[in-house]
Amino acid sequence: MGRVIAMRVLGSVGAVFGATVLAFMIMRVLPGNPARLILGPLATSQAVTALNHHIGLDQPLYTQYWRYISDFFQGNWGYSYSDGASVRKLIGERAPATIELALFSFVITMLAAVGLALLSTYRHRPITDRIVRGASYLGFGTPPFFLALLLLIVFFSTLHILPGPEGRLGVQAAAPAAVTRMYTIDALLAGELGTFWEALKHLILPGLALGISSFSFLVRLLRANLLEVSREPFITVARGKGLRRWTAFRRHALPNAFLPTLTAGGLVLGEFLAGSVLIERVFNWPGVGSLVFDAIVKQDYAIVQTFILLSAVMFVLVNLAVDLLYAVIDPRVRIPTVATA
Amino acid sequence: MDELALSVRNLSTVYDTGGSVVHAVRDVSFDLRRTERLGVVGESGSGKSALALSILGLIEPPGRVVEGEIVLGGRDISKLSDRQLGAVRGKEIALVLQDPSSALDPVKTIGSQIVEALTVHEPDLRRAAVRRRAAELLREVDISQAERRLDDYPHQYSGGMRQRVAIAIAIANNPRVLIADEPTTALDVTTQAQVLALLDRLVDEHRTAVILITHNLGIVSDFCDSVAVMYAGRFVETSGVDHIFVAPTHPYSEALLKCVPNPERLAEGPLPAISGFPPDLSQLPSGCSFAPRCPVGRDLPQCHEQAPVPHRVSGPAGEASVECHFAEQRIREVAV
Lengths: 341, 336
Ligand SMILES: Nc1ncnc2c1ncn2[C@@H]1O[C@H](COP(=O)(O)OP(=O)(O)OP(=O)(O)O)[C@@H](O)[C@H]1O
Ligand code: SF4
Ligand SMILES: [Mg+2]
Fold this sequence. Notes:
The complex is a heterodimer. Helices cover 73% and strands 0% of the residues of chain A. By secondary structure, chain A is mostly helical. Chain A has a domain at 94-300: MetI-like fold. Chain B has twelve helices and twelve strands. Chain B is globular, with a radius of gyration of 21 Å. Iron/sulfur cluster is lined by residues 250-251, 288, 290-291, 294, 296-297, 303, 308, 324-326 of chain B.
């Protein structure tokens, strides 16, 4: 197992390295000189040269790259030149909102997908199965932000049952005492049920909008997977021992279907943590996504770059965690095959 | 000695695949005496596995047992609920499947999969006692260091060992009847012989009746007492094992055996292919289902119009039941 883990960690380091090189290169090939961009079109060429020297752009590429990644991993992510604050501080302030939304969306998406997949595969129920397969095309190929608008029109403008695009809490509500800075959790910790409910209601529409395309993907994947596993001969063998249908399904089909679900779950979580720029914009969600959206508009490269690299690193880390879990859970990975006669 | 272990009457099973109905098992009847070993042979798709699953009540949708009586140890189990059948499966009648690599759950230990077979029927057993019994079962199927190897996973076992585990699971509760669906097909020749020898010894010791489904006529001649030739979902010829090799009466049986001219070569391989295609089980001809391929009846209107009923005939090597209009005539020709 040690070998497997070492391989996975090494692979992840490789992936992160690739991502940093890519991000670094993109920065180099972007049109325009960063110093010129900072100083503006009216600056003298001496001033540009001086700044180039100051930020190290006249150094050899590998020196620049080394500085770039050592800065990144030390958390020196530079300064936003639209408002002068450090990028680390800006992202740090916004991260809890994004993480809370991602986790919420992840939980409801997984629950719905697993539930529906079970419903349509445990026992032969053609009608249920058809409905589930229909549901799995919901939001398939629909751009998430369009869906977000649709949800707002239905549940906010028309039915008035859920809050509109006003961020994490209504205007009158005060944020709960900061512990994790995820409002639902902090509200529960503080015992403020009203605030919890408010925060939860504000999570629902963005959570749905964020989750729906992954939901489609997950339902189809899990359904196919469960169907395949429940047709395995070892299920027939288990039933042949005298196990009831549900017992055989629970003991043998579910654990075997769990592993691929874990992989898919990791992919989806990584995607949610990284990819809610447009959804956050639509719902005025004060997370990293909104920050990045504004930064793109203002060409605030320090923020955009850091975000890209952070997303890549996080994606790699989530998948590494999944791989490691795999190595612990799956005996075929954990224990090598010994050829014994 | 004439006590019946299993008696199947008019068993029919279909697969209803939206539009076409596949008649996988058609009106099969047979008796299995205590300690009898019945070989079921027939080409691929003739309904052998469907028959095995039907007897155990394990046909899954879109399949369905449409009728039939399955009397096991004096009790008709065909009308039991799934819960009631659960008490019968694994306890009175057990199953061994073809492919040992997929017959065991890859993420559960060998031990837990054997233990499960015991505890379903005796939930009150103490854990240590069940484990001891599981180790005994492993030893019984010739797996060395049984105690230690209980905690291994299937991928740590070779194919032959996995099939022995499958056999250990099947005999765990000393069932009256064991159905083995091509238990050695997926193994190499040496392992085949070992597994078969093991099965031979165990069913002898436990006095288990066996239905052995196989493509291999050599295995039938070595292992079985009686044989049923299955064609298009029906038993077209049923007899003692000697009869089929001495005087195959149904033209299909004869064709099967003619492809193996030398009895020495029987052990070598799977069922020989005979010319023509197996019938489409969703569009069966109205007469004899073998008629389109039958060297005898191909051109006879009677064979194409009228389905033959079983004829009891007596030949040089015993009696047989043969579904062919010309059974009597043919056995006389063979007997001469
Ligand atoms: N799940 C299923 N759905 C639809 N048809 C099926 C299903 N299982 C089996 N059949 C059909 O039932 C018929 C009998 O199949 P069965 O598996 O019993 O054949 P077999 O004699 O065991 O063949 P083999 O020697 O290849 O194992 C075949 O025509 C097959 O296509
Ligand atoms: S009934 Fe006719 S077609 Fe059928 S096996 Fe006999 S001779 Fe051949
Ligand atoms: Mg089969």
